[in-house]
Amino acid sequence: MKKIISVILAAALTLGLAACGGKTAASGQEQKTYKIGVIQYATHPSLDNIYKGFLEGLNESGLKEGENITINFQNAQGDKANGDMQAKNMATANVNLIMGIATPAAMSAYSAAKEKEIPVIFSAVSDPLAAGLVKSLEAPGTGCTGTSDVLNLEAQLKMIRAFLKDAKKIGIIYTTSEANSVSQLEQIKKIAPNYGFEIEAVGVTNASEVATAAASVVAKGADCINNFTDNNVVDNLSTVLHEANAAGIPVFGSEVEQVKNGCLASESIDYVELGRETGRMAAKVLTGKADINTLAVKTFSTCTPVYNEKVMKALSLALPSDYSNAEAVKSGS
């Protein structure tokens, strides 16, 4: 009789453990699975690199897709209305975290997630304060934090002056609804006179206006064009390059992928590493190792000078002596 009771108890214990479903035989610890929603605002190389790095950062932290995380990746295709709908669907599905790549995507995620108190992690948001995503960089306090790609505009202007000794006017095309672009424009206007430059800025509201804006800054006598991390403009970089090439003036990019695609040079941020750090932060929030409200925004402003030798030769320019250690990249590499 005792033997029968022992067998029954053993079977019951086995069934009880099996019912937990998430416990491993080796450790007996519960294995949690997390649902992550990702919204990438547009398809271009720098944002693609962030998503690549994001997955690497999660993996480094022990979170791997198909094992303990599931990822719903969506691309807004440069349309904020798409991002808003994607974010609402993710919030309705009760994901554990939403990640927004670029300022418009982060704003969509934050708007949809705050009512349900779903944490939001962002990347490539140049000015989280101006975008209304955080109360402060040190203590966000909004259920939202992440990584910021702060352009080193001083270094960029120094580079432009080194390449173009006699240039006076820099043309800038920016999207009026992108908070990061408006903020960057204000900053560069303040410091441009220190390098002997005047800024000729033209605002656009959508992709169809980029070509006209590029033609406008050229017609107004710009000696070059400088790109920010403006998603709309970068997504239509070929249009900007077409107008600039026809006028025989260079375009300076904000990161290496733009230089690969035809810009002359850039003080470039490493967007893969930006994504990795974002992934590490997301992992800390998901696993309870960090509080989303007190996890400080990480800013990336360290930059590396890069240039496109083919473009430089086509414009009959020489590499400035101060940039002899800059990295040469190939078009389309």
How would you concisely characterize the structure shown here?
By secondary structure, the chain is α/β, with parallel strands linked by helices.
Descriptive report:
It is built from 12 helices and 13 strands. By secondary structure, it is α/β, with parallel strands linked by helices. It folds into 2 domains: about 35-150 and about 270-300, Rossmann fold (3-Layer(aba) Sandwich), CATH 3.40.50.2300; about 155-265 and about 305-330, Rossmann fold. Strands 2-1-3-4-5-11 form a 6-stranded parallel β-sheet, with helices on both faces. Helix 2 crosses helix 11 (about 270-285), helix 3 packs parallel to helix 4 and helix 7 (about 210-220) packs parallel to helix 9 (about 235-245). The longest helix has 19 residues, at about 1-20.
